[in-house]
């Protein structure tokens, strides 16, 4: 079958499950054919082999059942990086790039900064900061061994040697260790009762990376309480959090003695990142 016909049929099949049906179909076919999506505009009439059509069909069927495109491709771009992704971790999102931007705005580029990323997942935040600050030293930790291995592969894939990764439940494996200039985290922050959890891509992502007790605040509260023991004088702590959690997060920061507490908005205009 011709590329244009194949894509038309595929995007019709995906239209009931995805708001970006044609784009999804293009990304999946580009993956199968090992080309970029621009190829489809140059060669719409090219024939696709039976073998490639079958491989494409398998991916379409999985997408029809809701599996996220990023898991089907096994990769996702974030910041200036190309990251391997897998179902053991959250898929990096554009909202989290906001946290990277805010982090970069408080770091002194002329210094060797020591940075800790809690719940690093794919390593997205740690590696973005590592790429922007080649002299800084970044440690990323995650509870899930498989995620730690994935983040290490992402460091190699993006040729970044100033970020290292280790298994740890928040600060646990760092006890008695060094102090940091900046601690960042995109922790689980969704309320276990949130209806959002039964819709779209999140259904396929690990609950341990998404959901936290106490209306989504439990992990953020824990980190705010323990973090000061791991921070240099004048260091920063910052989180990504839910669109409606800024006030609660600010209150926690202030109660724990943090100053200069401030929130920043995401692309959708919601308070998404808070720093202290
Ligand atoms: N922002 C993500 C979502 O709403 C959740 C990320 C997280 O819990 N850290 O799907």
TrEMBL record:
PANTHER family: HEMK METHYLTRANSFERASE, MTRF1L RELEASE FACTOR GLUTAMINE METHYLTRANSFERASE. HAMAP family: RF_methyltr_PrmC (MF_02126). One of its GO terms (molecular function) is nucleic acid binding. Residues 112-243 form the Methyltransferase domain. Keywords: Methyltransferase, S-adenosyl-L-methionine, Transferase. GO terms for biological process: methylation. Its EC number is 2.1.1.297. CDD domains: AdoMet_MTases. Residues 5-74 form the Release factor glutamine methyltransferase N-terminal domain. InterPro entries: DNA_methylase_N6_adenine_CS (IPR002052), HemK-like (IPR004556), Methyltranfer_dom (IPR025714), N5-glutamine_MTase (IPR050320), PrmC_N (IPR040758), RF_methyltr_PrmC (IPR019874), SAM-dependent_MTases_sf (IPR029063). It catalyses: L-glutaminyl-[peptide chain release factor] + S-adenosyl-L-methionine = N(5)-methyl-L-glutaminyl-[peptide chain release factor] + S-adenosyl-L-homocysteine + H(+). It comes from Marinomonas alcarazii. NCBIfam families: hemK_fam, RF_mod_PrmC. Methylates the class 1 translation termination release factors RF1/PrfA and RF2/PrfB on the glutamine residue of the universally conserved GGQ motif. This is Release factor glutamine methyltransferase. Belongs to the protein N5-glutamine methyltransferase family. PrmC subfamily. Substrate binds at residues 186-189.
